[in-house]
Amino acid sequence: MSEFILELYSEEIPPNLQINARNNLYEKIKSSLIEENLKFGYLNAFSSPTRLTILLKDFSDKIEIPSKEIRGPKVGVMEDIVNNFLNAHNSSRKDLMEKQSNKGNYYYIKTNRKEVQTSEILKKIVVNSIASIKWKKSMRWADTDLLWGRPLRSILSIYNTKTLAFNYGHLKATDYTQIEKDLDIKVKKVVNFKDYQKLLSNNNIIIDHKDREKKIIKKFESFYKDKNFKNYYDVKLLKEVTNIVEDPQVLLIDFDKKYLELPKEIIISTLQNHQRYFPIFNKKDEITNFFLVVANKKDTNNIIKDGNKRVVEARLSDAKFFWDKDKSKNLIKQIGKLKDVKFYEGLGSIYNKTQRLRKLSGVLADEFNLNKEKAEVAASICKSDLCSDLVNEYPDLQGLMGKYFALSQGFEDDVSNALSDHYLPLGNNSVTSKKPISYVLAIADKIDTLVAFFLINEKPTSSKDPFALRRSAIGLLRTVIDNKLNLKLRNLISYNIRLLEEQGVKNINDNSENEILDFLKERMKNILKDKNIKNDIIEASINSYFSDNYFDLYKKNILMNKYINKEVGINAISSYKRAFNIVESAKENLLGKPDAVLFRKDEEKHLFEKLNEIRKSLTVTDQDKDYEKLLISLSEIKIFTDKFFDNVIVNDDNNDIKNNRLELLKMFCNIFNNFINFSKLEGIS
Predict the structure, then answer these.
(1) Are 353 and 423 in the same domain?
(2) Which of 157, 329, 496, 580 qualifies as a FRET site for 429, CA 20 to 30 Å off?
């Protein structure tokens, strides 16, 4: 069977661009092969910093293209249109057929079965696939017009040991690859993939990224076992490092133990974020003074090891200097310096923001019966670490350093923890703030960010969200839900708007309050989908929800999803469906306000009494509502509706009685829709 190799050799491509390009190329070639009806046994994509490689095996040298019918223009159109259709498919008038379809009478042609050389199809697929790679950033090579993630130097294309020739931009596909060593570039001929792999291996290049990753992990685990370290490494960093080396060599390096006095996050950030090194922990999960470096060549004379050790100790020395200096700076006294730190154009300074947060946190503390003074202190100093040299050097440690500074200055634990925890959640899978002072400040911070940017009309668009407002909204909702907070947000948003206006922020969006609540509703859909709530339940709950208590909305969705296919849900939906269909077909302007005086049957009275009983349970405060009990009550009403429909004729000859019965059924629908809009559920209408 046949074999095809494609190699795209370029300047070094950064890890994320490389991974994206590798996946893009693989998926495009795979889908194109399927589309062209080319069956194959094996397809894979490999990459190194300078190479993107495709290997295709076990396919036929010829492709059979079956006969098929192609629909053309409608019968009766202008002759030119028909001729253009025929020319496009290399056909003549004698090939035309007329066929009747549900959309009218159309011309058709039938293509002949034919065989095509696979090599010709591959050329088309490869060129289109290379062109389809989506780069976040592209570069040109010299004065050419070819755009690529990094300048593209050569293309290797071999089909069954021979060159599959094609042009891409200024480059011509050949049967040789380039090997760069010590700034010297050599051209090497390739016959097949086995030859290609051997050539690269002889030059210390592992083309398969998965093999490089396995080699790194194996060496990591060997060190961990020998030194009795915890078997842990950052998976994301491993993926990145795997794609910046061609021949990974793992080095175990240490630094001076005196730096272990620093908060571990500083050490981790220094090693992991700044240097792409792997910190090492002992079995007690304590950070050690050892770390792992993945180099791109063997370190025979410890030159790489000694150099990396000097770099790390120099950075840790700077960090220790900043730490010793910054932790003694009184956080309260740093608040005034925040006046010089701009929040955003038109929104004042970070100092202005902290003053708003202090007031918002005070309101929330009162709402949840918490220590108001603690909440206000935490809010006042929550951004003070922005004035420190340490955060300036390590911006990823904002909040965490504030926590450590606060602890060293004697602030209480819950206040100190709030300084770091109020930034949570950091991502979709991150934990949320769970301690009371922390979640109060987290809610205040996220609300203020949303309100501030909506007020000056800097809202997200369908394609852009430069201020991560979607993330703030989801973080806000998750914090409320995870802590089971019955919090109505409209009043808080309104108060936040007033605070901004009092600080001189120009309100250029009069509808910001409603827009924020709608924005939160849309984000709520994402949260509910992540919980595997059925789409019709989400639509039924959100589209009819006019409150601003999102934990309330969440509870309804969870319960409805739990019971929808059980007896409780089935009975509730069945009862609603009968009433809804009658009300809809009546085409009357109904309010849902029946007159008990006009009841003529006991079944009307009993249904009315049961509905009033349920309605009373809807009027209690949010924290006292038992939605599970309420849903069960909606299910149990089926007994009353069955008796009603069995014994009561809605379309009574007396118009007053008829309309009153319709009003009763409308009342029934209104009460159900107060839970969620049952009319939006699948199978209702």
Answers:
(1) yes
(2) 496
